Amino acid sequence: MLLSILAEGAKPSALGLDATGWVAVGMLIVFGIMLWAKVPAIVGGMLDKQIAEIKKTLDEAANLRKEAEDLKAEYEAKTAGAQAEAEALMDSAEKEAAALVEQATIDTKALVARRKKMAEEKIGAAERSAIASVRAKAATAATQAAESLIAAQHDAAADKGLVDKAISDIGNTLN
Known about the structure:
By secondary structure, the chain is an all-alpha fold. Helices cover 90% and strands 0% of the residues. The termini are far apart.
């Protein structure tokens, strides 16, 4: 008989429900158990936890972005400061180089003046030495000429008169 019912195209049923009805009842029971076990609250809590983690990550990313922007601004300021410092150093170096060139020019002129003065002093000393040498030679020549003249014109009698006169002058000088 069961075969004849199946053969006629009748659908099996239990308690007046066919297979689709029992699936619907099973699903209602599963949903009821899930509600009784507070599964939606658990899922909502898990989702809230994930939302909080994502929000925390976004906040950290925003903070990191702000820190990166601050560092970028700081390094840009340092770069500008370093550029200004480099320009100041270049200006200072140029001024120092100009001062060194000016000082070197002054020192060179002073050195030339000192060397010129030393040369003039050496020339003066050489002139004085030459004059002294000429005077010494002239005195020697004059002495030799006088000696020759005296030897030629004075004899023993003339010498005796000069000696007598010198002796008499000594006596007058001592008294």
